[in-house]
Amino acid sequence: MANKTVGVIGLGAMGYGMAKTLLREGFQVAGTDLGEAQRAAAAELGVQMVDSIAALCELTDTFVLSLPMAKHVQAVIQGEGGLLEHAPAGSLMIDTSTSEPDITRDLAGCLASKGHQMLDAPVSGGPAGAAAGTMVMVVGGEAAALDRAMPVLDALSSKVVHLGDSGSGHVAKLINNLLCAAHLVTTAEAVALGKRAGLDPALLIEGLNAGSGRSAISEVNFPRWILNEGFDSGFTMQLMRKDVRLAKKLAADMQLELPVAEQIAQIWAASEDNIADADDFNCIIKNAGLGE
Ligand code: NAD
To answer: Is the pLDDT of residue 2 over 80?
Structure first.
């Protein structure tokens, strides 16, 4: 696929990093975004920016979507002037957004009926992982589509796990983010307890990270974004609240009672009262015993 053009739709925190990686790995990258600042930043990077999906479809048959929510993915695929209308025959859509499994299955079915292929390939690793090409991808969709997408996925990630049919990647990602949301709350409570008992939080985290209570939250988030009060991971409260809400909906759809997950979901939903949508998602620790 060397020299292949990849069309990136959505060049925000994640899409920008992915475009950077694809360019570094030798792909041509074209893109489109609704935001002026995002368009300017991507153009500066060397992305060939176009004003519409129709124009993007003149340049490629391979698309990476990095959009906030399912409704944006629907608009880009099914909306007026979208991919269904304009994509060249036999196109491949790789949706890296954290989206909704049911909607993904519908969209994949719709695209397949027109001869296109779609993968749900949501990602972990944040903007830094996107820019470094070290994301983890959990993928849903047909093996043939995955084979075709592998050069792009290989460039973007250090690990790809194929979970099964369409929607499976989005199910796995919601489960991952439910755990991440829970670990933020439980680790913040643990540090609050340690502080009250007279421990230095940084030394406590160092101790936890050498023991069995550790997680990615204690190993990465606390040292990198929380203890230094940086709160600049590049992932927002709004997007994490969306993911927790969707994980809760998934459990309800599966008719599964998960009491701890339910309480975690309540804590994240209630945070709308005092933590702004644009704030860093690590700010949730302020509602879990580590407020001022
Ligand atoms: P973001 O809001 O920074 O970027 C999304 C971009 O999509 C914006 O630039 C927006 O203008 C653009 N957009 C929206 N509708 C569009 C349309 N119709 N056409 C073209 N562009 C459109 O969000 P992000 O942080 O980059 O996250 C993107 C996705 O990745 C989300 O689903 C998020 O949950 C997921 N995710 C984010 C992170 C992270 O750390 N930021 C990590 C893993 C997964």
So the answer is: no
